Amino acid sequence: MPPTVVAVIPARGGSKGVPAKNLAAVGGVPLVARAIRECRAARLVTDVVVSTDDAGIAAAARGAGAMVIARPGEIAGDTATSEAAVRHAMDSYEAEQGRPVDAVLLVQCTSPFLTSEDIDAVAAAVVEDGADSALTVAPFHGFVWRDADAAVDAVAGADATADGGHGVNHDKSFRPRRQDRPQDLLETGAAYAMDAAGFRTSGHRFFGRTELVRTDPARVLEIDDPHDLARARALAPLLDGPRPGALPTRADVDAVVLDFDGTQTDDRVLVDADGRETVAVHRGDGLGIAALRRAGLDLLILSTEQNPVVAARARKLKVPVLHGIDRKDVALKQWCEEAGVTPDRVLYVGNDVNDLPCFDLVGWPVAVASAHDVVRGAARAVTATPGGSGAIREIAGWLLGPSL
């Protein structure tokens, strides 16, 4: 019987550096869903488990095909260790599934460019090559310096003297050429594998013989602050390449149903002294919708608000509209029946919690980048563009190609 290899993805909801970080979209896919996708594609991984304390992350994880284990509050705070989350997930998995874990992986979804090949490599080091633990590393050629003043203050107190900065992995008086220095390896923070029994005994991810699995240094990026996230989004088109199934194409979709407020607008309403309301829309969205219509897709605008603005915009776009709808899911189901459209082949675009029932009905629930955290978590794909700023044009590009 093949070994049981469980990939655990710790994903707290309380990130401070980047709020709702684990649901942030890179390449149109939430970080937690990217990690799940690569784990599920790995040859040796038996099951993928997300340990979280957040409802939005849990919804995203289930939507991406992972098991979800609710993390207790005592191991979900800022000082909680990843090891604690992994141990709890292992125990919960074994209790639920009724079988022991042979090897456990710790996979960090804040490393957006981790690949299934990397995951398989650390798993294979343990289950096939006999290592006790393994981790991803990348070649590193830099000279590391340490501020001696800070180090002395921390160790000896403020009265100690220091000589300024000093080299950590080199003697500052001797700077050998790169080819003359030993090869340093940087821990990427992306993926770790451990023999399950050894991990329980040691309580730490590094024990026994630790195998170093080399990865592509171009893919090493950990998202800790907004600048890291912006860099990841810029790199995604270069590093992701074509990944079947990550985003919908025309072959996946027969109809596109659009929410209005917050999806085709930025969710703001301007009200004049007479109570008249106006909103701002994006011309690019109009071009995208026209292209979808020409491509033969069925289109519908579905809105809770009963508003002349919605009707006027629908007339201009030549798209049918249902507005003033309390139960959008009921209206959507009825529309699908009347239009002869299979719900599994509907792409629904939304931004707020009243869109969630529709998300449950369709094959392609899509959230705009500015959507509520829970909505982004429940989406199968997330735009990189906020609502009202061209998000619908971006989706049209997914379906019809970027040159439309």
UniProtKB/TrEMBL annotation:
<protein>
    <recommendedName>
        <fullName>N-acylneuraminate cytidylyltransferase</fullName>
        <ecNumber>2.7.7.43</ecNumber>
    </recommendedName>
</protein>
<dbReference type="GO" id="GO:0046872">
    <property type="term" value="F:metal ion binding"/>
</dbReference>
<feature type="compositionally biased region" description="Basic and acidic residues">
    <location>
        <begin position="168"/>
        <end position="181"/>
    </location>
</feature>
<comment type="similarity">
    <text>Belongs to the KdsC family.</text>
</comment>
<feature type="region of interest" description="Disordered">
    <location>
        <begin position="160"/>
        <end position="181"/>
    </location>
</feature>
<keyword id="KW-0460">Magnesium</keyword>
<dbReference type="InterPro" id="IPR029044">
    <property type="entry name" value="Nucleotide-diphossugar_trans"/>
</dbReference>
<keyword id="KW-0808">Transferase</keyword>
<dbReference type="Pfam" id="PF08282">
    <property type="entry name" value="Hydrolase_3"/>
</dbReference>
<dbReference type="InterPro" id="IPR023214">
    <property type="entry name" value="HAD_sf"/>
</dbReference>
<dbReference type="GO" id="GO:0006054">
    <property type="term" value="P:N-acetylneuraminate metabolic process"/>
</dbReference>
<dbReference type="InterPro" id="IPR050793">
    <property type="entry name" value="CMP-NeuNAc_synthase"/>
</dbReference>
<dbReference type="GO" id="GO:0016788">
    <property type="term" value="F:hydrolase activity, acting on ester bonds"/>
</dbReference>
<keyword id="KW-0378">Hydrolase</keyword>
<comment type="similarity">
    <text>Belongs to the CMP-NeuNAc synthase family.</text>
</comment>
<dbReference type="InterPro" id="IPR003329">
    <property type="entry name" value="Cytidylyl_trans"/>
</dbReference>
<keyword id="KW-0479">Metal-binding</keyword>
<dbReference type="InterPro" id="IPR036412">
    <property type="entry name" value="HAD-like_sf"/>
</dbReference>
<comment type="pathway">
    <text>Amino-sugar metabolism; N-acetylneuraminate metabolism.</text>
</comment>
<dbReference type="InterPro" id="IPR010023">
    <property type="entry name" value="KdsC_fam"/>
</dbReference>
<comment type="subunit">
    <text>Homotetramer.</text>
</comment>
<dbReference type="GO" id="GO:0008781">
    <property type="term" value="F:N-acylneuraminate cytidylyltransferase activity"/>
</dbReference>
<dbReference type="Pfam" id="PF02348">
    <property type="entry name" value="CTP_transf_3"/>
</dbReference>
